[in-house]
Amino acid sequence: MSNQIMRDHKRRLLVAKYELKRMYYKAICQDRNLPNKIRYEYFFKLSKLPRNSSKTRVRNRCIFTGRPRSVYKLFRISRIVFRELASKGSLIGINKSCW
Predict the structure, then answer these.
(1) Where do the structural domains in the chain lie, given as residue ranges?
(2) For the domain 59-90, what is the CATH code?
(3) Which entry of 28, 56, 76, 93 is 20 to 30 Å from 20 by CA?
(4) Cβ–Cβ < 8 Å for 75, 83
(5) How far apart are the first and last CA of the chain?
(6) Which NCBIfam families does this chain map to (predicted)?
(7) Do residues 38 and 28 lie in contact, with contact meaning Cβ atoms separated by under 8 Å?
């Protein structure tokens, strides 16, 4: 496995671990009915969470090559690998169109 794929996998694990805590802190920070002191306190707690626990830090990468661009979310593979596997017939239900 390449270093980029391992790093992305660790980020995905961190996102899953801190997801509920992050949502809870964000909800309190955005609630305007609460006093500012409490909102700032939870904003500070939110900033203390690991940066890699944010969803925006996760990058969709091909699981075979680690390519970051043109990755199909459904299969988690790049268009190049997808084309090769489809030509070989390795993907069930996917075949090359002909008319």
Answers:
(1) 1-58, 59-90
(2) 4.10.830.10
(3) 76
(4) no
(5) 39
(6) PRK08881.1 (NF006477)
(7) yes
